[in-house]
Amino acid sequence: MTNTQTTAVVPIKLVLYVAGQTPKSTAAIENLRRICDEHLPGQYTVEVIDLRLQPHLAREHNIVAIPTLVRELPTPMRKIIGDLSDQEKVLVHLKVGG
Question: What is the Cα–Cα distance from 43 to 23, expressed in whole angstroms?
Answer without folding.
Answer: 27
